[in-house]
Structure formats: structure tokens, C-alpha cells
């Protein structure tokens, strides 16, 4: 078991999924922690390949692991690629967590997600609501794999005394997001659609649903900061929610995105499309007690996310 507080300075720290939205934010955040950063491109080590992963961990012996790799996507991807979502995420979880244990990693952080709480759990969502009811059917394969990862971290802590912790981030946005037209999350989808409408001079943008559901959004660099804070100061088998603790209606949020993008046309709502759950908000009181609060306002975060989108978009076009 690692000591608490756990000093990252000088440690070999592996970020799994370092090219992803969360992983790249962790890499940015860790730059000021004086760590020896370890990363491996997927082409060299597919995290589903148990032999390759065991071998790499045995050779490199990371002392701390941020497990930010996963097959991730919006509702369409989760619901249509159901086999891939359960297989990829289950195998990665079992492989990486076991490799960390075998190679003697002192600490590991597993990233769960707010979307794996039961569909009808009371809002705001508390950590102890996990596994208290049926899951949202559209992302059940992903949720089952993620819950297995959390339960593995818990089991390794209880049987071997491993200092493995799990966190539950809310909806994230920021640099490195996935802007795929079908497979993206809501923030990236709105940034892309408002940007395209601005460029083409479209007079109206249609947003799915009624605009009334309320959601919580966290800037990914804030998430990385919270992860580093918890890695250094937290050691328990209890989950920790990571969010802002504030929600906003989709209609209000769409306006924030449109303003940040500079889209001046109208926004209408397609009531024939599903709204999903009326409210999704994390209870962040445990995180607040542990001494962390989000610092990036939604307006600032969306503005920075849009700047990143423009950079990434231009790079892709070159
Ligand atoms: N995005 C959100 O809103 C959100 C919310 C809550 C929780 N989370 C959690 O945060 C974590 C990271 O999510 P993200 O949004 O950063 O996702 P992302 O941008 O799609 O990044 C995922 C990363 O995992 C890597 N990866 C996936 N499959 C792999 C494999 N078989 N072998 C090696 N690497 C693999 C990807 O590699 P390539 O770059 O090669 O594709 C990528 O670097 C996930 O655990 C997710 O559940 C995300």
C-alpha cells in the first residue's frame, strides 16, 4: 500500500490512453509534478493484448498508473457497437489492473463514469448509488465493463492491499474531444454543428430533444487537476465523483456554445428525438470534503474548447 499523501515527484508515472481527451489533459497537468512520464502509443501496445501489456509493465515498472484508456463514445456508438464496448473495456480493465498488481505498482487510478450509475438513481447522484438498480440499456455493455474495473480495483485493494482507487467523472469536454458526426458526445456535437452553421451561414440549427433536460459539464483540464489531487491525497475503496456540482438545461447550454462559436442564427428543438433522463448531476460533496473544486467556468471552458476545436480542425484539414 502506498503512503498517503502519495508524492508523485520523481515517480515513474504511466498514463494509459495518453492521446485521448483525458489522457492528454493528464499529461499536460503532470508536466508540473516532476514525474518521469511513461506513455506508449496503441500501435506499440494494444491494451487488449495481455502478453504485450504484462511484458511492458514488467520491463517499465510504473509506480503510479492513471488508467485513462477506454473505448468511449456517445449514445449511438454505445448502442450500436455493443460487443466492442463490452469486450474492449472489459479486457483492458482486467489486463491493465492485473499487470499493475503483478509489476508492483504502488498506486493506480481507474476512471469510471457518471453514466454507469443506475438509470433511475436519485439526483444528484451519490457514490453509494452504484449497483442499486438497473442500468441505462443503451450503454449497459460499457457500464458493465466499467463496473467490473471498479470492482477489480476494490478486490485487489481488499485481497492484496493494493492502493487502487476509482473516480467517477461527469460529462467532459475540452481539447482532444471526439467530433465524429455520429459518435461524439453532446458538447463536441454542438461545437461542430454551430461552427458548421456559422461557416455556411445557416439561419437555424436543430438540436435534438426538447432542450429541457439538465446536464453537468466539466472542463477536462479541471478533471486532470482533480485526478492528480486525488492520486496524491486519497486512498480508499470508496468511489469519488468528479464534477462541478452544477447543471444547466440543454437549451441554455446550446446558447453558451452558440455564443462562444459566434453563431448568431436561431436554435430550434426536434421534439421527436429522445431527451434521455431529465436530469444528470453528480453529488460532489465527497470531493469538496477532500479539498477540490472545479475552477473553470462553463463560458471560459467552452471558449477554450472551441479554440482547441479550430486548431485540431485546421490540423486535420492540412
Ligand atoms: N469523455 C467523457 O465525457 C468522459 C466522461 C466520464 C468518464 N470518462 C472516462 O475517461 C476515460 C478517457 O476517456 P476519453 O474521453 O479521454 O476517451 P478518448 O478521448 O476516446 O481516449 C481514449 C484513449 O484510450 C486509448 N485506447 C482505447 N482503446 C485502446 C486499446 N485497445 N489499446 C490502447 N489504447 C486504447 C485511445 O487510444 P487511441 O488514441 O490510439 O485511439 C485513446 O488514447 C475513459 O475511461 C472514460 O470512461 C470520459
Automatic annotation (TrEMBL):
Active site, UniProt feature: 142
Annotated site residue numbers, Important for catalytic activity: 113, 115
The reaction(s) this protein catalyses: GDP-beta-L-fucose + NADP(+) = GDP-4-dehydro-alpha-D-rhamnose + NADPH + H(+)
The organism's place on the tree of life at top rank: Bacteria
Residues that coordinate or bind NADP(+): 17-23, 111-114, 146, 169-172, 185
Domain (NAD-dependent epimerase/dehydratase) ranges: 13-243
Enzyme Commission no: 1.1.1.271
Keyword Membrane belongs to the record: no
Keywords, ordered alphabetically: Isomerase, Multifunctional enzyme, NADP, Oxidoreductase
A molecular function GO annotation: isomerase activity
Keyword Iron: no
Stated family: Belongs to the NAD(P)-dependent epimerase/dehydratase family. Fucose synthase subfamily.
The protein's role, per its UniProt record: Catalyzes the two-step NADP-dependent conversion of GDP-4-dehydro-6-deoxy-D-mannose to GDP-fucose, involving an epimerase and a reductase reaction.
Protein name: GDP-L-fucose synthase
Gene encoding the protein: fcl
